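Lecture notes, continued. The same structure-token format from the folding unit now serves as the input rather than the output. Read the line below as a description of shape only.
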């Protein structure tokens, strides 16, 4: 029996058809996707996923974070094996980033149904809400609530650039579920993912088994100065918040090079006020993150970033504060599952 089951293969053409359908929902640039979390395209993709799940005989449920679960019953009422990823994308995302992980899980269940196999444990196919963190920062927001790392109130209070809250938008698109978030045992979790870097391709390796994540730390830093006219204001009287942010961003980039190639640091965003020609900015907020596979090195990079923030503020004669910080990715994955 085990040998017979292990000889089963998924229906690649059926999986490809689902991926192609997914690529039609929220199309973006150059054949990619723009399906930001909790937008109408995200809702449409969720609706399509729910239809596919029910067609495959799965029971669909949604929790209060908007996470979706398609459940195949098992022979016994045991903690489920779970497979999943996410449907939300960045503003210029690839067709397979996230999509592949969810739809591959669905194809696994469909294949088991085709061969009339009922597993011992239930299998749940999961779509996590807001994994990318593009519209609502930080990333992996809803899954972090599921894991008990953050609270549901914190998640629902997150705001986007237009001041729309996560909770209100979740309700608007019809995916503010009734189920509690997390608080239950899982047997295991698997995620098939398309690599976003070039390493496997460069080495000619078709599939890699991930053993853990890079320890990643991010922060949003606000520099506060004073508005003034750019013409008459003497240089020694200026308090330019944008200059402080610029010096900080340059330092963040230098930190990445200092610990390259394993270490990486990135400035991804600047919000400036009033952001008008001829006016010295009074406020500038910079979003940055630092990553290294060694947690101790990531900590060192963060301390360097803190020091760079203080130096930048001093040189620009402005004040600086960290508005928010986050950390993720420092878990080592289960050795038995990796071997399996």
């Amino acid at each position: 029996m085990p040998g017979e089951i292990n000889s089963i293969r998924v229906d690649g053409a059926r999986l490809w058809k689902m991926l192609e359908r997914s690529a039609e929902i929220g199309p973006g640039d150059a054949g990619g996707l723009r399906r930001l979390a909790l937008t109408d395209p995200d809702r449409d993709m969720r609706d399509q996923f729910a239809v596919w799940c029910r067609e495959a005989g799965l029971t669909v449920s949604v929790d209060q974070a908007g996470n979706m679960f398609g459940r195949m019953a098992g022979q016994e009422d045991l903690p489920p094996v779970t497979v999943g990823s996410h449907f939300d994308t960045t503003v210029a995302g690839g067709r397979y980033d996230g999509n592949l992980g969810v739809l591959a899980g669905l194809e696994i269940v469909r294949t088991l149904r085709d061969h009339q196999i009922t597993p011992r444990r239930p299998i749940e196919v999961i779509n996590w809400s807001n994994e990318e963190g593009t519209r609502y920062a930080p990333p992996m927001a809803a899954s972090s609530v599921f894991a008990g790392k953050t609270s549901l109130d914190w998640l629902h209070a997150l705001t986007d650039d237009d001041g729309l809250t996560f909770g209100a938008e979740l309700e608007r698109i019809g995916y503010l579920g009734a189920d509690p978030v997390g608080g239950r045992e899982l047997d295991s979790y698997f995620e098939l993912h398309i690599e976003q870097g070039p390493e496997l391709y460069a080495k000619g390796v078709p599939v890699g088994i991930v053993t853990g994540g890079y320890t990643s730390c991010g922060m949003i830093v606000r520099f506060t100065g004073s508005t003034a006219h750019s013409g008459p204001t003497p240089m020694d009287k200026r308090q330019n918040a944008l200059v402080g942010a610029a010096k900080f961003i340059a330092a963040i980039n230098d930190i990445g090079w200092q610990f390259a190639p394993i270490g990486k640091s990135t400035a991804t965003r600047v919000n400036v006020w009033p952001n008008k020609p001829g006016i010295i900015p009074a406020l500038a907020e910079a979003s940055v993150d630092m990553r290294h596979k060694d947690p101790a090195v990531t900590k060192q990079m963060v301390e360097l970033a803190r020091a760079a923030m203080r130096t930048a503020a001093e040189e620009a004669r402005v004040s600086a504060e960290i508005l928010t910080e986050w950390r993720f990715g420092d878990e080592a994955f289960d050795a038995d599952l990796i071997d399996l």
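Point for the exam: The first helix runs from residue 2 to 6.
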